[in-house]
Amino acid sequence: MRDFSADHRWLSINTATLRGAGPLDKIVEACARHGIRAISPWRDQVAGIGIERMAQLIAEHGLALSGYCRGGMFPAMDAAGRRAALDDNRRAVDEARALGAACLVLVVGSLPGALRGAPLSKDLFAARNDVRDGIAATLEYARTAAMPLAIEPLHPMYAADRACVNTMEQALDLCDALDPSRNGALGVEGRDRAALGVAVDVYHVWWDPKLEAQIARAGRERLLAFHVCDWLTPTRDLLEDRGMMGDGVIDIPQIRGWVEAAGFAGYSEVEIFSRDDWWMRPADEVLATCILRHRTVV
Amino acid sequence: MRDFSADHRWLSINTATLRGAGPLDKIVEACARHGIRAISPWRDQVAGIGIERMAQLIAEHGLALSGYCRGGMFPAMDAAGRRAALDDNRRAVDEARALGAACLVLVVGSLPGALRGAPLSKDLFAARNDVRDGIAATLEYARTAAMPLAIEPLHPMYAADRACVNTMEQALDLCDALDPSRNGALGVEGRDRAALGVAVDVYHVWWDPKLEAQIARAGRERLLAFHVCDWLTPTRDLLEDRGMMGDGVIDIPQIRGWVEAAGFAGYSEVEIFSRDDWWMRPADEVLATCILRHRTVV
């Protein structure tokens, strides 16, 4: 297992962690001030400053993109809705490629309408079919753009509104069905990555009794991203009460050990949604804490 | 699948659903007023009026007990803590037997201290070991009392503080390891129930892509209880924001179809924790709604 204690060269900052810090150019500048080598931006934050400006900032600061957030949200009640989702995912692939991201992270979606509190369906099977078909279609496009797609299994508490793929096993079953040969995404810096893999976020998967086995099953080719934060007790909000690494109950080094044993050698990406705590703090304090915790408890 | 539309003879009320309605004798009387044939009481509520009084009320109203809530909470940091948990579980078995419950429901526990917001460990493996050993010891005692034990897999959002058994598959693996012969709990009304089985609560398991298969695997012998409520979008609290059947996104009839196809023919037990909604309403309104929804959407 890699030793992170001496520096933070393998730390990436998911820019949602700094949602309280203003527009994305300010966030990038804060990261650069702290010697952060990699980030993972969200589309809405990129749209806020424009993709050309973002590409310029990335070049200027020599940043790597450990991922791009996010594609997905495939299910819809009708064909027009599903087509619109595919169009949007193609745009996401294009943006990820334009910015040189290592992968496009997929939050696959679930029951149409649920995210705005007005679910139009209770049919998880239909949602899962839309997800499978949506990933298949997007994968075809993503292969031409040499952009790996990373399915992010989300915690089961998001099964209604954000993702109906909720375990590593389920995500890897999809990967094996849609990308059985683990064909690499050609042209992506020559890495031995499958065109379709997973983003492992400890927050979503730490509870899973089959986690170690499924990480081993994923293997180097399908482990496209590794996200860290922590699970607080109590957790006061289903979405925006994630903890800083070390402040919760997740045995992060154990999980990192498993992904590294499977061959993962990329960034540990910090992604913390924290409306009442970390989003309220100055960017410099958040980043200094991320760096400290990365070196001590990740 | 049984037709529930004409009456509510297969409706059971978990008394936590009426936490806002005062002491347990008032709750029992309200249930009796509405022609409820079965309930499932919580130990703290029983303790509030005394077990003799409760036994008297049950006899007086001719009530069945679809379950008794709850045993479990096995993990501890030291041997004394584990022994204390076993003592408490034996008392729970005795109480369940004294009241004639169909099973003792086990919420197995997880990281010691986490429930009071002060986790003493991050070791889920140790917690799972304590759970396995605690169930094994309690099972030995429960067999002598002919009291079936029902492991309730809890939603993964409770993995830190309430239960480190979070899927049907995991619960059934435990059942198969500890009660491989599915030996019945002799003396319990001659039913073909295993000594160790599961309580299937739709709230905890609805999201699981393997649910149908695992319900089939459980079969009649291990399906000891079936709990219903609903998953609201949004869900505003991790513990106390469950919905009334029909108000959320769970396809309850589909899941009931699966458990009945596997041979389950017992009560549909309504268990709703709802601090800001149902617990604020009069017991008669809550019960009338439970009955209506039982007949229409369960």
Description:
The structure is a homodimer of 298-residue chains. Chain A contains ten helices and nine strands. In chain A, helix 8 (211-222) crosses helix 9. By secondary structure, chain A is of the alpha/beta class. The interface between A and B is medium-sized, with 32 and 32 residues.
Assembly status: homodimer
> How do the SSEs of chain A run, as a string of H and E?
EHEHHEEHEHEHEHHEHEH
C-alpha Rg of chain A (nearest Å): 18 Å
Shape of chain A: globular
The N- to C-terminal Cα distance of chain A equals 11 Å
Using DSSP, what is the number of strands of chain A?
9
User: In terms of per-residue confidence, which ranges of chain A show pLDDT below 50 for 5 or more consecutive residues?
Assistant: none
Strand content of chain A: 5-15%
Count helical runs of chain A. 10
The largest β sheet of chain A comes out as: 9 strands, parallel
Give the chain pair forming the largest contact, with residue counts: A-B, 32 and 32 residues
Q: What fraction, in percent, of the residue positions of chain A are helical? A: 40-55%
- Which strand order do you get reading across the main beta sheet of chain A? 3-2-1-9-8-7-6-5-4
